[in-house]
Amino acid sequence: MKKWIAAAIVLMVLSICGYVLAGPYLAIQGISSAIEQRDSAALTRHVDFPTLRVNLKAQLNDHLVRKAGADMQSSLLGAVILGVASNITDVSVDTLVTPVGVAAMLQGDGLIKRAVGDTVNGDTWGPPSPARPLADTSGRYDSLSRFTATSQLDDGRQVHFVLSRHGLRWQLTDIQLPLQQAP
Fold it and tell me: Are strands 158-166 and 169-176 parallel, antiparallel or unpaired?
């Protein structure tokens, strides 16, 4: 009897470890499926929108300041312009990186694809071709609670999708855009 209990406990621990290790791949599959089906509600389960917004704002504002250069940063007019540009960036990210914003982008993408004939059957009234931003990704564990999936763009640049573990769940928490890489 004790052997069965010990075996059941070991099996349960191995199952949980397997689920945690497979978690990032399951989350990427869930994100891909939600995007293909244009289902923002399903996407919400796999994306930590508040953390993603904070990370994208920091990344975009840093890029903006670096592109402006030291001369722009040191002048009073430059500081005002950078402040306004930073506020515009923050509002844009706050608007777009939400379940509703993602749904609107997916809807707009579907309308554009229909307009140019990029549909499943070539008919402008047919369903749009599914978006597949995570189709060819490679991934690696950075730690036990951080996983990075890398996707190659057509021009050779890379986008890194960072997933973080919260308990047993993995969620997208950062998208590292190829802002610093030359095309």
Answer: antiparallel
